[in-house]
Each structure stands twice: as structure tokens, then as C-alpha cells.
Amino acid sequence: MMMNLMKPAALALAGIAFSGAALADPYDAYRGQTVVANFPAHPHYDAVMKVLPQFTEETGIKVEVDQLQYLKMREKQTLELTKRRGEYDLIGYVVFSKADYVFADQLENLAKYFMNPKLADPTYDADDLIDGYVQNIGVAGGTKGYLPGKTGSLFGLPFGSETSVLAYRKDIFEKHGIDVPENYDQLLDAACKVPEVEDGMGGMASRAASGHQASHAFLLHLAPLGGRVFDDQWNPIINNEAGVAAANALKTIVDCGPEGSQTFGPSEAAASFMQGDSAMFMDSIAFAANFENPEKSKVAGKVGYALHPEGVRRGSQTGGFGIAIPKNAENKEAAFLLMQWLTSKKGDLAVAMQGGNPSRFSTYENADLNEKYPYSATFGEALKYADPDWRPIIPVWGKINADIGTTMSKVLTEDLDPQEALDGVAERAEAIMDDAGYYTWR
To answer: In angstroms, rounded to a whole number, what is the distance separating the alpha carbons of residues 319 and 310?
Structure first.
């Protein structure tokens, strides 16, 4: 399907009309340029690779992509963004990099591009972008420094953003009369019932590997169980009753999970589910397309999808990736045109039809998408509960996140008491925050 972006006649996002002759072709000045993009090796960006030729055909702008595993991508970007002239014109970045890059003044503020009538497509319809994704991925400088607010600015756009849903084996649940979990009591009961009634099968495949993966898995349960890492004054509260409940929930899931799950990252957990070794998987929506691909999955056609179960409240995670323009990019305007094209209504739908993650409400409502991927309706419903504040996105988060991850790994593998573990995390986090100046104004 050929993209057909309309020509600018208004200031997109600002909503300010202007008069005058429309450009014959907004891409004329950029034909022949090459945008160098750094994208993660990820199912969404695999889908992107399939539609990039359409962009070049329509615009005359070439695209070269350096696709890396996302932690290696972060390492490469950390080097490139400090150079006087970087290699990349457009980067895909994982959400927890937002604070670091903005704080270091390494990303372009997108206002001047959306204010430029020669660049900004008036049909872009920013109101159609999923609110929680924009807040989580793109905005910085507002509430808490990393959420929207009167002082916030837009530095990136959601692209490959994710929320969490529960995938489960319909056949296994029906065979053993297990109800689809709607709350955490039901989730934990199901996780431990499956290995009792289905020989050799784990209850739920989960991330658990020491470091970021164990931290992510713990935080996945912390928000719906009513917890936060900090209160509004940046006091650590990760070790309160909700925090201990989240740690115990994760330990139960891992203990009742498939063999070797203590070392799982997201790919290993997804593979366990796809190979039929686990009855549930609760993580990113990004893996669903592969679950339904009979060439890759043994469970295609046997998977049901449900909302992230409710604890004290509903609170699915928001995460994944966005795209941004580095300050040291060489071809910034051409990069913006690519960014705008990819995240437009038609671009978003084109990527989603190839198995990517929608960033727009209208994409989830598209009849063709729902016919091809019937689970899309459930994912759209889940976005009503997507929590952009399920983890703090602050410059010192990397240190705290790593500490949570290594400490939680000891809970999972060495039977460290959860309360003792989280008390230690809280104490160390408070020292990190103090050193970073978060208590200066007390």
C-alpha cells in the first residue's frame, strides 16, 4: 500500500492555520538524501524494515538502518551522541534512555519541526497518538521531570511502544477448568496449578535474569499491586507492603514457572510460551504476532489474550521504544520527515499490518488490522489502563534499576527475604537520590 501524505497547509500540533500556496512536493528539497537510522532488533522494527521501501519510493529519501540488540544499541548511542557529528540521523531509543538523553541535551526538541509549515503535515493528528505512550516515551521536563506538565516538551514520538497483557493457552485452561485470571489471586493460583495438572509445563514464563530483567519483572507487578518506587517527595517506598507483595508474587511465578526461568529475559520467556513449555506469558504486546505465526510458534491458534490482571488497581506497564532526532545529526529535517511518515496514521497502520505495535488509537480500531490480528481489540482495551508512571524515568534510574535487578535475583535464586532485600534497595536508593540533589530543596 502506497503512503499518500497530504501537503502542509497548517502548523501541525500547534493548530495554527497559515495562508499561501502549497508546496508542489514537500519532499523535493530532500530527494537523494540518506537518513541513517539506529533501530533495535525487535519485532516492531522488523516490521518497519518491510515498509521503509515505501517511504523511499514516495519521498526519494533513502534510509540506511543499523539494527542492534537493544542493550548494545544503547551502548552505541551513548558513544555516538557525545560526538561533534554523530553517525545517526534518527534513533530508536528504549524508554529508560529518555531521561539520560534529554538531561544531557542530546535530543532535538521537536517543536520547531512541527512549527515549520514546510515540514509539518497538517493531517498528522497528534490527538490520535496514544496518550500514555506519548507521556512515557516522548515528553520530559514536566511533572517529576519525566511526565507531561506545563513545563514539559516533546523530544520523541512513540514507535514500538508497548503495554502488558496476559497471553494464555486456551486449550490448557479449558482442559483443566482454569478460569482466565482477572485478579492477582487468580493469576498466582493458575500459575501454580498448571504444573500440578500438566506434566512438564510451567505456569507462567517471566523475565527473571539478574539485572534489568528481574527489575522489569518486579516492577510489572508493583504498580497494579498499589506500589511505587518513590512517593511524590522522592522518598523510597519500594519496601512497603505493596513492594513486598510484588516481590512475593514474582517469586511465586518463577518458582512455579518452566525449568530454567531464573535466567530468562523477554525473548527466552516468549520462546518458552511459543514452544508450549508454559501456559501463560505476561509481558509486552510485541510478541503476539510471533505467537500466532505457525512457522515460529507451536501454539499458534491456541492463545487467548486478556487484560493485565487487577491487583489493588489495574496498571499495565508502558515501555518499549520511541524515535528521536539526535542533536548532532547531519540530516535533521529529512529525519523528521521519516519520523513523521512512520508515525502518521497511514504509516502506523502499515507497520502494524506487518506485525508492529500501533502508536495510534485509530490503528487499533482499524477493521483490517482486527481481522488480521484479532487480539488487537484486547490490546486497545488494555491501553485504557496503561500507566506512564509505573517506573521513574530519571537520570539516576540506571543505578537504581540495576540494584533492584541484582537484589531481586537474590530473592529468586538465593531465597533472600523480600522485606530485607527491599529495605536494602530503599536505603541505597535514598543515598543515590541524595547525591544527585533530589533533596536539595527540602
So the answer is: 19
